[in-house]
Structures are given as C-alpha cells and as structure tokens.
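re: ur question from the group chat, yeah i did fold both. here u go
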Amino acid sequence: MGHFIIQLLLNAVAVLAAAYFLSGIHVKSFGYAVVVALVLALLNTFIKPFLTFLSLPALVITLGLFWFVINAAIIQIASWLIGDGFRVDGWWWAIAFSLLLTVFNALFGWIVD
C-alpha cells in the first residue's frame, strides 16, 4: 500500500509538471493533481485493458503507435470525469500529456522500487 501512495504522489507531481510545461493542460491545485493521478490509475486498471483488446488490430497494424490514441482517450475520459479541476484542451494535448507522464515515470519510477 505504501508503494501505491508514493507512486500516486509522484504521478500527482508529474501532473502538475505537465500542466506547468503544457499550456493545453489545466490543473487547479495539488489536490486535483492527486485526484487526476488516482482517476488515471483506476482507468488504466479497469478501462485500458478493454480498450486495448478492442483496438488490438490497430495496435498491430500501427506497430504499437495506436497506444498514443488509447492513452489520449484515457486522459480525455479522466478530464471528463473530473470536470473543472482538470481540463485538457484537445487530443494533441492529451497525447503530449501522456508522453510527459511516461518520461517522468521512466525517470523517477525507481524511487518507488
């Protein structure tokens, strides 16, 4: 449980960093960043496997590049669920946000392990 909380807080920091660097990502506060991190974790656990299964042919044809679309869809769903505290201005911003979170987790994921 401790690892999950640390990972959640690191992802919240990554959400704030992405909002700072990307003008199309808007987060009201650190509290909302934690909510975004939690919602993304839940969506990645429960919705992403279903989306992956449905888009398996597209993933194969694009050699995995369709993952960007799946991640952007997850982020857009999170934005819709959270409402005013977290807003993404479009699909390209969602893809950029996804890339930034991936890089952040690759660089700082060792902290949790």
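okk and heres the other one u asked abt
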Amino acid sequence: MTKLLEKAIAAVRKLAPERQDELASMILSASPEAPVDLTAEELEAVEAGLADADAGRFATDEEVEALFAKFRAA
C-alpha cells in the first residue's frame, strides 16, 4: 500500500459510516473486476451497440473526427 493510500484510509476512518461506505463503493468500483450495474436503458444501448458491431456498422473516420471537433470547440 502506498503512503498516500494509507493517509487517505486514515482520513476515511474519521468519517461517518455512511460516508465511509460511499467511498468504499467508489474504490471497489475502480477495480477492473467490479460488476457494473446498468439501468434497463443503458443495457439496451449496450446491446444495440454490440449488434451494430456484429453487423459491421461502425462510425466513419469523418464522423468520429466531427464528434471530436464538436467537443474540442466546447
């Protein structure tokens, strides 16, 4: 464990139990093995994306660049 993490855990120990649980959930969700809870709408979007990928439907380079340009301008 790093010194910074030890310091953070010492600080968390001083918090209310509810806040400790919130932070523990955040830490556990950072794990690559952590399960992801999706809403029905999110699951539907993931399934649609996978179906598009299976069918070979991907954004063109131009579409991707236009999207990036939109967010760079914001």
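fwiw on the second one: The CA atoms of residues 29 and 35 lie 8 Å apart. The two ends are 39 Å apart (CA to CA). idk if thats what u expected
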